[in-house]
Amino acid sequence: MAEHRRGDLRDITHEMLSKGRELAEKNGASLTALLLGHDIKGFASKLTDQANEVWVVDDLRLKNFNAEAYQRILSSLITEYKPLLTLIGHTAFGVDLAPRLAIELGIPLTTDCLDIDFEGGVLSVIRQMYGGKVNAEALLKEAESYIVTIRPAAFEAKEGEPLGGEIVDVASSLKEDVKNKKFIEYVEPSVGDVDVTAAEIIIAIGRGIKDKDNITLVQELADALGGVLACSRPIVDKEWLPKDRQVGTSGKTVKPKLYIAMGISGAFQHVAGMKSSDLVFVVNKDAKAPFFSVADYGVINDMFKIVPALKNKIYEIKTIT
Amino acid sequence: MNIIVCVKHVPETAEADIKIDSEEKSIELSGLVFDINEWDNYALEEAVLLKEKHGGTVTAITVGSEDSESTLRKCLARGSDKAIRLTDKRFEESDSYAIAKILHSVIKNLPFDLILTGVQADDVGYAMVGPILAGLLGIPHATMVKKIELSDGASKVNRELEGGLEEVVELKLPALFSIQTGINEPRYVSIMGIRKAMQKEIKVLSLGDLELNKNDVGVAGSWIKIEKIYVPPAEKQTEYIEGSPEEVATKIIEIIKSRGLI
Amino acid sequence: MDFELTKEQKEIQKAAREFADKELTPELGREYDKKEEFPHELHKKAAKLGFIGCHFEESYGGQGLGILENFLILEEFCRADSTLGTALLVSTFGSDIIVMFGNDEQKQKYLPKVASGEWIASGAITEPAHGSDITSMDTTAKLDGDKYVINGGKTLISNATIADFAFVLCQTKPDAGRRGQSVLLVDNGTEGFDQTKIHGKMGIRASPSGEYSFSNVRVPKGNLVGVENMGFYHTLEFLDIGRAAVAMQAVGMAQGAFDLALKYAKERTQFGRPISDFQATQHKLADAATQIEAARLFAYKTAWYLDQGRIMPKMTCMAKNFATRMAVKVIDDCLQIFGGYGYIAEYNIERFYRDIRVTDLYEGTTEIQKNMIFRFLTK
Ligand SMILES: Cc1cc2nc3c(=O)[nH]c(=O)nc-3n(C[C@H](O)[C@H](O)[C@H](O)COP(=O)(O)OP(=O)(O)OC[C@H]3O[C@@H](n4cnc5c(N)ncnc54)[C@H](O)[C@@H]3O)c2cc1C
Ligand SMILES: Cc1cc2nc3c(=O)[nH]c(=O)nc-3n(C[C@H](O)[C@H](O)[C@H](O)COP(=O)(O)OP(=O)(O)OC[C@H]3O[C@@H](n4cnc5c(N)ncnc54)[C@H](O)[C@@H]3O)c2cc1C
What we know:
The complex is a heterotrimer of chains A (321), B (262) and C (379). Chain A is α/β, with parallel strands linked by helices. In chain A, 28% of the residues lie in helices and 27% in strands. In chain A, the strands form 4 sheets. Chain A has a 5-stranded mixed β-sheet, with helices on both faces. In chain A, 52% of the residues are buried. Chain C has 3 domains: 7-115, Orthogonal Bundle (Butyryl-Coa Dehydrogenase, subunit A, domain 1); 121-229, Butyryl-CoA Dehydrogenase, subunit A, domain 2, CATH 2.40.110; 232-378, Butyryl-CoA Dehydrogenase, subunit A, domain 3 (Up-down Bundle), CATH 1.20.140. Chain C contains 12 helices and 10 strands. In chain C, the strands form 3 sheets. A 4-stranded mixed β-sheet of chain C has the order 1-4-5-8. In chain C, a hairpin with a 2-residue loop joins β9 (269-270) and β10 (273-274). The relative contact order of chain C is 0.12. Chains A and B meet through α4, β6, β7, β8 and β11 of A and α3, α4, β7, β8 and β9 of B. β8 of chain A pairs antiparallel with β12 (224-230) of chain B. Bound molecules: flavin-adenine dinucleotide (FAD) (2 copies). One flavin-adenine dinucleotide (FAD) binds next to β1, β3 and α12 of chain C.
């Protein structure tokens, strides 16, 4: 299930095709990219190299994502063609669509998967629990068809041999207009004074900051380092920092040269927004915080001890030079 | 406006020392502090805010053992009018699909205009219960909701998309929304609330009271079966910096400096 | 006999804990400790949720709960932060004498405003020349028509500079000692009633203390609490609740310090292992936990008696005597576990150490408690 928004194919599409291809090859199956929307031929030609077939359903009513409309098309296609596996992104799009589709069709679903495999006709997945502190290996109930939603950035979008897939136009099965759910408009995120996406040095804070008043402490460190302050979602939810400082899937994606995370556990929604940083330091007092697994350097300590020490060190250097 | 909120009683694990139990199928739960799931906390607050604005009632429902009464009590103290707990030994090991079926078997017989759930649960994080429940009930749904406006028989909600973008969607009522964190500021439990809640009963129902059989629930009624859990392998070769805060700071600065960042 | 808290009590405890953990933060505690100011905003927030004066009757703005419920709240508050917890606890100090001996009009006037957080109370007993010995007072009140005229001064009075009213123990019958004292209510702003702040306290610095001076302060006869010339006895009964509350406060603080120390002991490593591996540390913590638990039971028991309407001065004196001494010692041990860092403000334990000390002094020093206990034993 290809995903696009406002004229762009989303990364998850390529990531799923990449994994889908591997699974198809292993199981002697064929891989189809399904594109729903309006005026999307351009996307289709971009996907021909990554799938055996690219199916296009063009309908003005599919222009913007609408779970109800998409579900109708998908359920009729799945009923007719009985794919072994349907992959959907574990995104704002997929979370709205997949569960209900599964229940309508009575097809087993599991969500937010990091890995998938077939073993003797049985589908097994790896997913995370407890905010990423634990991985779980799970089996899906045996069935003829499965639906799985895939965590963004779980798979690399690999460039393989071009598959030269054929573009197939599929007639829209939408008979009447969708009535229950109507897309109205997009609302742009607010623009603030600081652009974290352009920053070379980012100090990010999470719920470990404990109190709004402690933010100044870290702000001073960021200033001393010539960096900017960013944060995890709960800090924005509490309105301690503006939304444009939030890093993660529902915030900004950043690629700084240096990312120092303080008091952030490292939920994938956060990590997805900073994974491409060049150098990552993680300060967390919990040795089992998942964030450490993606850090270059880890400090298992109290951020309130490390922050002042760092600040002093930087002032020291600055006064010497 | 009659609102149903589905809530879950979950362990707080962000700062806890998690241990995997000997069967490697779940974590050791003893010693962990349990509370209302973070997303459900916002959902409950939203329900109470909507009730305060539009009138009506709020009913909190959970599937859970006796321990989860404290989460329901919290809901009652914070403004929920009724509470229902669905419990049965045979519900154990139910996945989100089975849980949604259990909830559905009760909710379908209740009057409601709106159902709120959290986007996902802190512990298992499937983000499935809400939309499956909506599917079973045949009512419209929207997930990741950050704003709700209600008018006669209809609603306008903001859904949160990636990158801070939101979409506004119009849905007919009755509908189900899965609530995203940050939609409001959950209130504290007040003593007045506790006093009032003490006069409210928690209704307890088990499998025999529901129009379900034992194959609909537990492992038999689930799509997903957990085989094994383990500590995730590190993605990067993380080097740990040890020592006193001063030593750690010195080392960090050295590394940053060697990369030309100072 | 039933040692289990009721469901409602457990919920109250949980609600107070959640509020305290999020609002009575050590950062805020340090700030107010430094500023020597009362946390007004926090106080209003707590009151709005019903955490202040919850044991007042509902018709007087309270929640109609018992002393035990009130204790559960203040225990959680003092555990979360000794400085802020104490400030909130002491904000109502004195109002219980109105609960116990006030008439309906007095209760209507004062209690709802205390419970809602609008007003802060104070109770003025101590005088420069009369601390432990309050059997006679230098502050006098003389009836002049339908007014009492008060002259004199009080010292070491909690909330003196922020309170909206005070109960004042006065000598109404000169030379009659304890049989000639009366309790009068004086509103802030009454002519001739003046307050000054005492700076530089060792601890509980978010609970400001000060001095009162009265120069021909005229208050209506209706401000008399209870019976004329029975003020000393009313005060002793009032102190029964106060002393039990101090015992509870000490338990809360000791628990807070214990929690900090236990966590630190697991984190800090020396000689290649956490210091909690050393038996010396383990024994300190084991003893602390044991003693805290014993004192907690003591404090709960006194609250239970009070809720039964039984005045048991021997019990309350024993509870205070035991709990405050225990807490001073336990917090000292907890600080020791922190080593040199325990001496630094950032680690908060030093604030517990300073704050706890007052529990040994106010509402009757430990020596006075022991004197009274012995008297009851030989009665
Ligand atoms: C649809 C959706 C979208 C989301 N989008 C985002 C997003 O864009 N960005 C985002 O960040 N999250 C996002 N989330 C939320 C995400 O799942 C996590 O809940 C969130 O990232 C947790 O934030 P945290 O790490 O700050 O808090 P927690 O998980 O509570 O972790 C706090 C950490 O601080 C540590 N700590 C505490 N005190 C100290 C101290 N003194 N010193 C050092 N360490 C300390 C603790 O050990 C803990 O590891 C999203 C969730 C959903 C469902
Ligand atoms: C922070 C703080 C807040 C206070 N708040 C209030 C308040 O709100 N209202 C109020 O009225 N008072 C208040 N007090 C006063 C407090 O109650 C008195 O300090 C206390 O009763 C002791 O009186 P004193 O200081 O005059 O000491 P003293 O009576 O002079 O005692 C000095 C020492 O002698 C000992 N001693 C005295 N008599 C005996 C005896 N018979 N046997 C054995 N030992 C004895 C005492 O135990 C003590 O060790 C407060 C005090 C403090 C420090």
